[in-house]
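Document type: protein sequence-to-structure record

Subject area: structural biology

Format: plain text, a pair of labelled lines:
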Amino acid sequence: MEEKLKKFTCTSCGEEPCVLEVRVREDTDIQAGCPFDEDNNVAHWVEEETEEFEKMIKIVDGYDHTDQPNKGRAPIGIYFALVKDNKAVSWIFSTGIYPHISNSEPTGFEIVIHSPEPYEHGLGGFAEECEHTGGECFVDVSATSGEKLGEKFMRTGKAEVIWDELEEWYRSRLEE
């Protein structure tokens, strides 16, 4: 059975914040003591409704295949994806670091929407396999928005600007 992140609040002690976040199977009940209870009695935990997004970060290998006909090169990248309900919004940040050659400036690449079905704005591409949808995937890409997000990320130095932007894209394009 698949695990998911659940958030529980203690109703025994009345202290704030008394919250427990754990990754558990769907059918799991929590039996744990409250950290504010000096006797460490088993507390009464109530599951909170959460709008869980899975945040994914991966390193994308760079490559240099310019020694082969019709091949190119790409810098090392950092792939960010915000995933929920078999839909996702992703973005790649280029480090500007190319294997075996001089390097360039970091930059943001496109923001990509991944959906198992077309959505009202009309998705531009189609892929047969997608790690976010679990199968077929309709995609929409915005290179300009990806560049702007890269500039904002480099200006602020805060990863939260990435998650906020991806969540805004998800909510405005994929939620019904």
The helical segments are 143-156, 160-173. The chain has two domains: 3-48, 54-173. The chain is about 15% helix and 35% strand.
